[in-house]
Amino acid sequence: CYANLKEAKEKKYMMAALVGIMYSEKYLMKKKRRVPIMTGQEWVTENLSTPKDCYNMFRMYKPCFDRLHRTLVHTYGLKGTRNMSSEEALGMFLWTVGGPQSVSQVENRFKRSTEVIHRKFNEVLKCLNDMAVDIIRPSDPEFRVVHDRL
């Protein structure tokens, strides 16, 4: 009986040690934070400064980008945070869909977590969807005229 009690106690200590090791590996032994050569905002700003790069990266020229950004911010509620500006979020969105780029490529380029990328992508997408509702409307909402080709 005493041997079984001692063995059970040792198993508990071993389990506690194992849980401690697993916790340590998951939460305490993290990689060093990535230090980007260029921040996402700097990358967006640099690409906006050259017409060819701007078009190649964002599929639009700077005046169009600026107008879209202004519209999304003032009319549709696109907001920046202290960690990511609305301009960087829009640039990240346009680069992603214009490429098309994978999330891992966006993560590598902007040095952001996948959670931040997902959240900001969805914020920009929501604003663009809201804008689409205002812009894309049939000329005749009653559909009284049938198109010739139908």
Number of domains: 2
What is the CA-based Rg, rounded?
Answer: 26 Å
Oligomer: single chain
Low-confidence stretches: none
Q: Termini distance?
A: 89 Å
Task: Count all strands and give the number.
Answer: 0
Topology as H/E string?
A: HHHHHHH
Reported for the largest beta sheet, the result is: none
Q: In percent, how much strand structure appears in the residues?
A: under 5%
Query: What helical percentage do the residues reach?
Result: 55-70%
Mean pLDDT across residues: 90
Total of DSSP H or I helical runs spanning 4+ residues:
7
Secondary-structure content class:
mainly alpha
Shape: elongated
Which terms would index this structure?
7 helices; 150 residues; DUF8040 domain-containing protein; 2 domains; DUF8040; mainly alpha
3D structure, described in words:
The protein has 150 residues and is mostly helical. The protein folds into 2 domains: 30 residues; 96 residues, no CATH class. It contains 7 helices and no strands. The radius of gyration is 26 Å and the shape is elongated. It starts with a helix and ends in a 15-residue tail after the last helix. The model has no long low-confidence stretch (mean pLDDT 90). It comes from Aegilops tauschii subsp. strangulata (Goatgrass). Pfam families: DUF8040 (PF26138). This is DUF8040 domain-containing protein.
Secondary structure layout:
Blueprint: H1 2-28, H2 40-48, H3 51-58, H4 62-74, H5 86-98, H6 103-110, H7 114-135
Helix pairs in contact: 2-5, 5-7
